[in-house]
Specification:
Elements: E1 8-12, H1 19-30, E2 33-36, H2 38-50, H3 58-64, E3 70-74, E4 80-84, E5 87-88, H4 96-106, H5 109-123, E6 128-132, H6 135-139, E7 145-150, H7 153-166, H8 173-189, E8 202-205, H9 211-230
Parallel strand pairs: 1-6, 1-7, 2-6, 7-8
Antiparallel strand pairs: 3-4, 4-5
Helix pairs in contact: 1-9, 2-4, 3-5, 4-8, 7-8
Bound molecules: 2'-deoxycytidine-5'-monophosphate.
Length: about 230
Amino acid sequence: MLAVNKMQIAIDGPAGSGKSTAARRVAQALGYAHIDTGVLYRAVALIALRQEVDFKDNKTLAILAELPDLEVKLKSNGSPVYFIAGEDVSAELRSPDVNRKVSQVAKIPAVRSKVTHKLKDLGRQGGIVMDGRDIGTVVLPAADVKIFLTADLATRVARRQQELSNKGFSLSVSAVENEMLQRDREDSGRQIAPLKPAPDAYILDTSDLTAEEVVQKIISLVKQREQKYKT
Ligand code: DC
């Protein structure tokens, strides 16, 4: 167990369940660091697309997964800006092309092993909120608080479409829905670290909740855990 102000908080769930927004705001409220772990897989996919790497070339993709050039800086409002070799790639990391390819990259064992190793290192000291697919099950299996967010498909599609439109990409509902279903299938069906709740995760359906309500619920679970440690 880590000191109360140094807890590890794991937030997992499918695309569009609201993980990253919730994780970022919970981290801000607690004064913790936040890591959106999907960004690492997205960065590998983006670099591979740019370098026209064959997505079946696991060896080259595993080398890209070392991600020596990936940097994150926080804006004054706390939202992250991602750079690869000094170039701001925040919008491109969420592009439809990356969305289509990222699950293929994320199911390669050698890529996962590199990314997982990096994430475990980053989480070791605690004081961290990580969101992803396998945080409570593989990356931080001893996390103090584990949350698994879900939402119905229509809600997830609407959120993803909004996110895409904010980044300047316009896609039909059916295109977003098909991409999301495909990604759900690949993320849940892969052999290594599939998307699934840890046995001790708190499952929270966010379909009818605002982002603020999700944040408040997670913070109340963190406070409960703190109380338990103090008694
Ligand atoms: O959360 P996201 O949509 O940015 O994640 C992008 C992809 O990365 C997603 O399809 C699955 C993969 N991923 C993963 O396999 N494990 C994680 N911990 C985070 C993301």
